[in-house]
């Protein structure tokens, strides 16, 4: 037999990543572990598996929605980033307004709730 030829046993049946090998090794360690934390680690492993499944489902949903829309992934990220920037600005302005209402309440000797009522602002705003 030629040294350069490969035997069927030397060819990998399935390519695996380091993460997959690590998962298999850690899963096998859970099976043979008799420590008190075994159940807790098994629950955590199940929770991680559930979260990975949820992530895959959400990724598929996102990809389906992107396929239906005229946006590319980059455009969708840009829209999302712009929305997040607007939310940050809104929150900064809201925080400043709340500080002003707080100072005004302090100066007038009232509660912030009373100041909101005086200016016809909903406390939930």
Write up this protein:
By secondary structure, this protein is mostly helical. Helices cover 71% and strands 0% of the residues. It has four helices and no strands. α3 crosses α4 (112-118). The longest helix has 36 residues, at 73-108. The termini are far apart. Mean pLDDT is 79; it is low at 1-14.
SSE string: HHHH
- From the N-terminal CA to the C-terminal CA, the straight-line distance is 81 Å
Q: Report the count of strand segments.
A: 0
Poorly predicted residue ranges: 1-14
Shape summary: flat
Mean pLDDT: 79
* Main structural class: mainly alpha
Percentage beta strand: under 5%
Number of helices: 4
Q: Describe the sheet with the most strands.
A: none
- Helicity, as a percent range: over 70%
Rg on CA atoms, Å: 29 Å
């Amino acid at each position: 037999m030629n040294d350069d030829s490969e035997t069927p046993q030397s060819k990998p049946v399935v390519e695996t990543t380091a993460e997959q090998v690590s998962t298999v090794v850690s899963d096998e360690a859970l099976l043979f572990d008799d420590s008190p934390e075994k159940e807790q680690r098994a629950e955590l492993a199940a929770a991680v598996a559930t979260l990975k499944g949820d992530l895959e489902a959400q990724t598929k949903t996102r990809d389906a929605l992107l396929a239906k829309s005229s946006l590319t992934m980059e455009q969708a990220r840009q829209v999302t980033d712009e929305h997040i920037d607007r939310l940050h600005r809104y929150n900064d302005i809201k925080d400043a307004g709340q500080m002003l209402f707080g100072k005004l309440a302090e100066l007038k000797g009232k509660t912030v709730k009373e100041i909101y009522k005086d200016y016809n602002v909903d406390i939930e705003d």
